[in-house]
Amino acid sequence: MSYSVIKSLLLPPGILILLFITAFLLVRGVLGRLVLFAALSIFTLMTLSPVATLLMEPLELYPALGIAMPIPSAAQAIVILSSGRITNAPEYGGDTLDDLSLRRVRYGALLQRQTGLPLYVSGGKLPTEAQPLAELIAEVLRTDYGITVAGMESNSQTTWENAEYTAQLLKPAGITHILLVSDAWHLPRAVEAFANTGLTVTPAPTGFVHHPGWQQELTYRNWLPSARAFQLSYYAIHEHLGRVWYQIRSWQQGAPAPAAEV
C-alpha cells in the first residue's frame, strides 16, 4: 500500500469513512444500518475528486474570457463579486479576504489591465462584522495591484442583493454592459440575477474545477478521499440548491429589482 493511500485513510476525511464503516459493522438493527449506510455512501462520494468534478461540470457553463471567448468591445465596466473573509487575521491586523475572494480579485485586476475598464466591487457585511467585503476588496486592489475602484456596493449579503444593489450603482453612471467576475461554478446563478436587473452581462469566470478531457487524466489517487474534494462537492451542491431557490424566489417575488433609468 503506497504512502498516498495510507495518508488518505489516516487523515480526514478518510479516517471518518473508516469509522463510519466500523459503526456500520457494529450497529444492530435494520433501520440503524440503513441510516449509517446512507450517511457513509453520501459522505464517501462527496470526498472523491471525480464526483466533485461531475457535480461542478454542469455549473461551469462559460468559457474563459479572452481565451475561448473574446472580450466584447461593448463592455463598459468590470464587476467583481466577493465571496468571504478571514476574520481577525493576526498577520494583517484585522479582517482580510478569503482565498475565493482573492482569486476573483486577481482575475478582475488582470481584466482591468487588459481592457482599461472601470472596476466596481460588490459585497457587504454581517451585523457582527466591522468592514464590508467591498471595502476589503478595494483595499487589496489599491495596495497590491495599484488599482483604484470606480465604485463600491457594500450593502449586499447574497448574490441576489449583489445584483440588485450593484445595478442601482451602475445604471445612474450610464453603465449597462458589464464583465462579471466570479468563480466559474458560481456564475450561472450570478449572471441570471444580474441579467434580471436589465444589465447586459458577459461572464468572466475564474477558478475552474473541470476542463475538457479531465476524465482521461484520472489515476487511482483521484479516487482517494480528500478534504478538497469534499469542499468542492459542498460548493457544487450549494450552487445547485441555490439555483433552485432563486428560481422559486423569482416565481414568488419577481426578479431582482431593476435600477431606475436615468
UniProtKB/TrEMBL annotation:
The chain crosses the membrane at residues 6-27, 34-55. Residues 76-242 form the DUF218 domain. Pfam families: DUF218. Keywords: Membrane, Transmembrane, Transmembrane helix. GO terms for biological process: Gram-negative-bacterium-type cell wall biogenesis; peptidoglycan metabolic process. InterPro entries: Cell_Envelope_Assoc, DUF218, Rossmann-like_a/b/a_fold. CDD domains: YdcF-like. One of its GO terms (cellular component) is plasma membrane. It comes from the Bacteria. The keyword Nucleus does not apply. Signal peptide: none annotated. This is YdcF family protein. The lineage of its organism: Bacteria, Pseudomonadati, Pseudomonadota, Gammaproteobacteria, Chromatiales.
